[in-house]
Amino acid sequence: MRISPLILGVSLLALAACGSDFDRELGADANGFGNATMNNTLIQSGQKDYTIALGNRFSSEVPSTITFAFNSSQLDSNAVAILRQQADWIKTFPEVRFRVYGHTDLVGSNASNQALGLRRAKAVVAYFASQGISRSRLEAMTSYGETRPVVQTDQPEQQNRRTMTEVSGFVKNHPSVLNGKYAQVIHREYLVLAERKHPRTTNVTTQVAAGG
What we know:
Elements: H1 5-19, H2 36-45, H3 47-61, E1 65-67, H4 77-92, E2 96-103, H5 110-130, E3 138-145, E4 162-170, H6 175-178, H7 182-186, H8 190-195, H9 199-210
Parallel strand pairs: 2-3
Antiparallel strand pairs: 1-4, 2-4
Helix pairs in contact: 1-2, 2-3
Organism: Pseudorhodobacter antarcticus
Protein name: Outer membrane protein OmpA
Main location: membrane
């Protein structure tokens, strides 16, 4: 069977565009999901593009980044509060794998910062494991060390001392994945969330009933 050159060209361009997204943290950029080109690409290339879409959903629904004290990989109370939100989201999607990236600021040697970034990533994975998430779903802990600062400064900077959690793929042997039900995974609970009453609406109703 011959494939139309036009169709082949469009497909290759779509795949190339998506391929560039996999050279960085998924949560670092929120590409749109739902336009015609993206939908065609999702159909043609499968898991890779569903991973991007689910990664965008993760980064839009929960904070994906925590920060650390200088030269530390200890989780403070603010970090734990954010990781608890991440863990709850992760447990909602048993078909999905996650990756944790570690970062440091620019103070210190590159070698020591690489090691520190990895310790930070391992601390996050250890917390997730303590919440009942299988380590088999928490893969490829990577340290970028000082190479990707949020703020360009050679001084101590908390925003640079961080980890970022992202969606990295799907669990290969999960029934939903074996059946190719990626779209169902991505859109899970959207209808349920839409039907929930907003807390502000509930509070306003209560105040009115009570005489405001």
